[in-house]
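=== How it folds ===
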Amino acid sequence: MSPIIEIDHLSKRYAAGTEALRDVTLNIEEGEILALLGPNGAGKTTLISIICGLVVPTDGTVRVGGHDIRTDWRAARRLIGLVPQEIALEPFEKVERSVAFTRGLYGLPPDPAWLERVLRSLALWDKRDSITKELSGGMKRRVLIAKALAHRPRVLFLDEPTAGVDVALRREMWEVVRGLRAEGVTVILTTHYLEEAEEMADRVGVISRGRLMLVRPTAELMGEFGRKQMVVELDDPLTSLPEEWLDRGLTLSPDGRRLTYDYDHRAERTGIGRLLSDIAARGIGVRDVATEQSRLEDVFLSLIGNDTGAEERAG
């Protein structure tokens, strides 16, 4: 099966000389959730804008459902729903009419049954007769998603979908996105919430300075770049680390009651067994031992840091 989106050597340079995208190549499979991570100005929104037909690329091609976004843009655009970062709604329009109006923009006939299904799936059916300015910020974002789904797109772009909403509502939005994927909708989201990408995405793409640095399955990315940390809680505090432990990657907490050991879980020898044996040999009482996987945030910062260093060295 062909990917739903095929991006081939895509670049965008603006007249002032800014290179927003550099030779980006990426295939996005139907029915997956792809998270695009990157700092402000990395090129995430430019990439989405090109795919959605809002920005003209300098070089390269993009096909959506087999349709070229420049030579067959009507067919390509009809497959796409876009939820922008900014909340822009008609303040005095009722929710249901606002969503129906968006469907009409695609030249499609009314479909009350579909609109009801969309509104119910987003917990908006009880708000269908409310004017949008009366809604909370989270509800307004749901209306934006409903408008993006009004014409039954196969691909949905979410640009910072949970920006500015509280944690509880953010998790509700995650459930909405999972529900869309379960119905076969391909979801591409940009986010600054690394927890969001780690929780939801099938794959993660990292963009920095207009370059797509990598795309990996989320679990694989964590396995490849993530490290683990072991924390040993002690019965009695230590005043300092033994001298022979100083070069073993150990950190002693300020109160002396906790040893932290960073290690590569992929290494043939992690050093955990030796450390625990040495602790026992010294008669140090252990209250608890726990390990923790590095979070995606650590992986992301490591990658961005490596990229910045490479740029500086190249310069």
In short: The chain has ten helices and 14 strands. Residues 5-223 form a domain with the Rossmann fold fold (CATH 3.40.50.300).
